[in-house]
Automatic annotation (TrEMBL):
Domain of life: Eukaryota
Organism: Sphaeroforma arctica JP610
The protein, known as: Peptidase C51 domain-containing protein
Length: 78
């Protein structure tokens, strides 16, 4: 389930440590990039924890543009 982010924050608090996929802008060019994140202690911010395409000391996502969405895996009802 993707959730739109505003000012780099989730629209409502979520459980600390929950893993998600974050979509933002690549630091390597003007195109989209996704990384793995985890919900921070405040429940609305996200710590970036893994870049599937690391490139040295660059940040995982561009720091000049806020992330666009966070996607979470949720169980489907039976």
């Amino acid at each position: 389930v993707p959730l739109s982010m505003s000012n780099g924050k989730l629209p409502f608090p979520s459980g600390e440590g929950a893993l998600c996929i974050i979509r933002g802008t690549s630091p390597r060019g003007d195109h989209g990039h996704v990384v793995v994140g985890a919900i921070s202690a405040d429940g609305r911010s996200i710590d970036l924890i893994h870049d599937p395409f690391p490139n040295g000391p660059e940040p995982m996502l561009s720091t000049s543009v806020d992330p666009i969405w966070a996607a979470f895996y949720v169980p489907l009802p039976e």
